[in-house]
């Protein structure tokens, strides 16, 4: 069910984003003229994408008839800077066209123009700075800005701004898990691994955020190497953490880690952006292999809390890689996968630890209970918060030995159980009953005075008059003035004085 939910949520997300990306407008379909930087001319069909053999300025030209609209929508492009002209007039320059290091591919661009520019026959000229790739993944549309402006803002939020939220969520979760893993006693290495994965994933997601420039070409290459290295290392640490959490053989997860780390070294050896881009198939294989392996671990060990995030992450990674490799007009939703995975795996670990803590808490609480009577045993005294408003009462059965000798130990046990039952019936909610010894009981009466304590003891005595076996007891009352131990000693002395009188 969780697997189906993960796949279903993914498809609903993609359908929603595809619907946002195709507003009402006139699509500029048909053949476009492509002029390469070396002057070569060819006709291409949109969607169009290719990896370049050399960087340069490439021009796409489209002739179209007059149509209604005041803007041109480019919802998905691949280049590093654009200049858009309509009938020879420059409408807009996107990114740093000269350096060619802008990150504009994961963003939907609306270019407005004066409607008076529109003629019976129009020429749309798009100059694109191609560093290592070039493409238009969705057919450009002539639209009215008033109709699609807010829609485009919402679309950009879901395909671009969401990465800022994902980065913030990954950083916060990473810090929380890292602090927890390093500060809580016990072996919590898996928390540390997943924390590192979460922090590194925030670095990787910088690759998907719109920016006007990334410095010069050398700086862009270094930036891409670091973000890719962060992504491959993040998924490797995630596999390590989940592997340790599930108890899988460490040698297997270490192999995945070393494989990804080898990929990192390989990409750092790439001399230029074109070589870097042309070998991206290796990173895609590593990402897909790692995420599928991760999902397999989760399913094999039936970690139900991890099934949904693992399924969603794997689906988004496979879909995004296929979209990038094929150049088709897909929505790159890997940020959602990282966000859901980071939160999902982190919350699953916390949930698991909470379950363990609850079990430990129940075990600890059971260790504080006297199994015969249901009262607390003396261990509870180390954990009771005490104040000067509290009173303690020491109670000792006067005829307990007589009951055991006359009626047997079973009757003696019944007498102790009856004693605790009657005390519970006459105490307040915050008062505490402790079986202090064999037939000795300590009452800790919270926010109480000596007079009220005496009244409580007398009510208990009255309730015991109807008990099947006659129960007589002596008691001593003392206010907590210094500490609990001193108060118990005073109450014990007063109880023995009463016992001697009886």
Task: Please explain how this structure is put together.
This protein is an alpha+beta fold. The chain is 53% helix and 18% strand. The chain is built from 13 helices and 17 strands. It has helices at 2-21, 145-183, 189-204, 217-246, 250-268, 273-278, 280-300, 304-326, 334-367, 400-407, 409-426, 450-464, 484-501, and strands at residues 26-27, 31-35, 41-45, 48-51, 56-65, 71-74, 77-78, 82-86, 89-94, 109-112, 121-130, 133-136, 141-143, 391-397, 432-435, 440-445, 473-479. The strands form 4 sheets. A 6-stranded antiparallel β-sheet has the order 3-2-5-11-8-9, with no helix packed on it. Strands 1-13-6-10 form a 4-stranded antiparallel β-sheet, covered by helices on one side. A 4-stranded antiparallel β-sheet has the order 15-16-14-17. Strand 2 and strand 3 form a beta hairpin. The relative contact order is 0.08. The mean pLDDT is 86.
């Amino acid at each position: 069910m969780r697997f189906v939910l993960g796949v279903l949520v993914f498809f609903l997300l993609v359908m929603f984003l595809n619907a946002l990306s195709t507003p009402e407008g006139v699509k500029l379909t048909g053949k476009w003229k492509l002029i390469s930087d070396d002057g070569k001319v060819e006709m291409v069909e949109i969607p169009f994408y290719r990896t370049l053999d050399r960087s340069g300025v490439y021009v796409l030209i489209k002739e179209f008839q007059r149509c209604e609209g005041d803007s041109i929508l480019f919802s998905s492009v691949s280049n590093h800077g654009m200049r858009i002209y309509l009938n020879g007039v420059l409408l807009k320059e996107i990114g740093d066209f000269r350096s060619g290091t802008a990150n504009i591919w994961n963003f939907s661009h609306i270019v407005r123009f004066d409607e008076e520019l529109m003629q019976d026959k129009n020429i749309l000229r798009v100059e694109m700075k191609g560093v290592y790739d070039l493409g238009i993944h969705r057919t450009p549309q002539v639209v009215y800005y008033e109709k699609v402006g807010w829609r485009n803002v919402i679309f950009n939020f879901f395909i671009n701004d969401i990465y800022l939220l994902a980065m913030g969520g990954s950083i916060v979760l990473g810090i929380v898990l890292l602090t927890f893993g390093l500060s809580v006693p016990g072996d919590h290495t898996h928390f540390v691994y997943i924390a590192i994965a979460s922090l590194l994933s925030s670095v990787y997601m910088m690759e998907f955020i719109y920016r006007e420039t990334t410095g010069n070409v050398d700086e862009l290459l270094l930036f891409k190497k670091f973000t890719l290295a962060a992504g491959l290392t993040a998924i490797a640490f995630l596999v390590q953490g989940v592997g340790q959490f599930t108890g899988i053989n460490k040698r297997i997860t270490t192999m995945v880690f070393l494989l990804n780390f080898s990929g990192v070294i390989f990409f750092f050896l790439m001399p230029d952006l074109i070589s870097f881009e042309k070998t991206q198939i290796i990173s895609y294989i590593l990402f897909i292999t790692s995420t599928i392996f991760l999902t397999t671990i989760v399913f094999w060990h039936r970690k139900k809390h991890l099934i949904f995030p693992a399924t969603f992450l794997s689906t988004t990674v496979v879909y995004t890689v296929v979209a990038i490799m094929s150049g088709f007009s897909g929505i790159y939703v890997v940020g959602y996968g990282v966000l859901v995975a980071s939160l999902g795996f982190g919350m699953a670990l916390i949930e698991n630890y909470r379950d363990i803590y609850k079990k430990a808490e129940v075990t600890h609480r059971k260790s504080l209970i006297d199994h015969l009577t249901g009262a607390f045993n003396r261990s509870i005294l180390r954990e009771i918060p005490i104040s000067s408003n509290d009173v303690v009462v020491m109670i000792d059965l006067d005829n307990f030995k007589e009951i055991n000798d006359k009626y047997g130990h079973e009757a003696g046990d019944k007498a102790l159980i009856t004693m605790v039952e009657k005390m519970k019936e006459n105490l307040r909610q915050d008062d505490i009953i402790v079986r202090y010894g064999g037939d000795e009981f300590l009452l800790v009466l919270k926010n109480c005075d000596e007079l009220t304590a005496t009244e409580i003891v007398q009510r208990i005595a009255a309730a015991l008059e109807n008990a099947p076996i006659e129960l007589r007891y002596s008691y001593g009352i003392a206010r907590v003035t210094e500490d609990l131990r001193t108060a118990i000693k005073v109450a014990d002395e007063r109880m023995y004085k009463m016992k001697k009188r009886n």
